[in-house]
Design goal:
The protein has about 210 residues and is an alpha/beta fold. It has one domain (about 5-214): Enolase-like C-terminal domain (TIM Barrel, Alpha-Beta Barrel). The protein is about 40% helix and about 5% strand. The protein is built from eight helices and five strands. It has helices at about 5-15, 40-50, 65-75, 90-100, 110-125, 140-150, 170-175, 205-214, and strands at about 20, 55-60, 80-85, 105, 130. The protein is globular. The protein starts with a helix and ends with a helix.
């Protein structure tokens, strides 16, 4: 099964940059266009092909509660399998960790668990020898909350930085903030250092947006 998009990215970035692929199968998405649903066989075939292309991980290739299939898939491939962005509490993550459903856990503190539970999940993952790289695709406030989790745990290896031009750029994603988050010249995102979440909400922008809605 060819994967021309992944092959094109690999050709463009060369052999040294890591590529991650998101199957977005954890929860059904409807209303946009035809959306295929993967089964275990398709996920296993895809993982084998992506492993040959040198992909770093395959994200959410199966349903978020399909624990048996996820653990079978993860055990069948050397490719890292990641997920967990929509799982909602420490008990679901206990199942994911205990059954070795993922190599890399991706809770989002705004969707899944909160910062305190995020630290608990990170500790459970660390004890099991797993990485935790939070999902961050919400907005600037959500990114700030997840950045604090990343900075407080030892088993986070990457910061997922939401960026999909032309529409989803820092100025749009963080439109409610006085200053958007961005990356520096070496590819790093700096943790906020001010009190609280370390961000300043621009209330004039919030009010203007509210007036347009009304």
């Amino acid at each position: 099964m060819p994967y021309p998009a992944v092959e094109a990215v690999r050709d463009a970035v060369g052999p040294d940059m890591e590529i991650m692929v998101d199957a977005n199968q954890a929860w059904p998405i409807h209303g946009f266009s035809e959306y295929p649903t993967w089964d275990l066989k398709r996920a296993m075939v895809t993982a084998r092909e992506l492993e040959a292309l040198g992909v770093a991980w395959l994200e959410e290739p199966l349903g978020m509660y399909d624990y048996d299939a996820l653990s079978t898939l993860t055990a069948s491939t050397a490719l890292n399998i990641s997920g967990g962005e929509m799982n909602s509490d420490i008990f679901e993550f206990r199942e994911l960790i205990g059954r070795r459903c993922y190599d890399i856990l991706q809770p989002d503190v705004t969707l899944s668990c909160g910062i305190l539970n995020g630290k608990k999940i990170a500790g459970m993952a660390e004890a099991a020898g797993l990485s935790l790289n939070p999902h961050t695709w919400t907005n600037g406030i959500g990114l700030a909350a997840n950045l604090h989790l990343m900075g407080a745990i030892p088993n986070c290896t990457y910061c997922e930085f939401p960026y999909e031009p032309p529409g989803w750029v820092p100025e749009a994603r963080d439109a409610m903030l006085a200053r958007p988050f961005d990356i520096d010249g070496e590819g790093y995102v700096h943790l906020p250092e001010a009190p609280g979440l370390g961000i300043e909400v621009d209330m004039e922008k919030i009010r203007a947006h509210g007036e347009k809605i009304l």
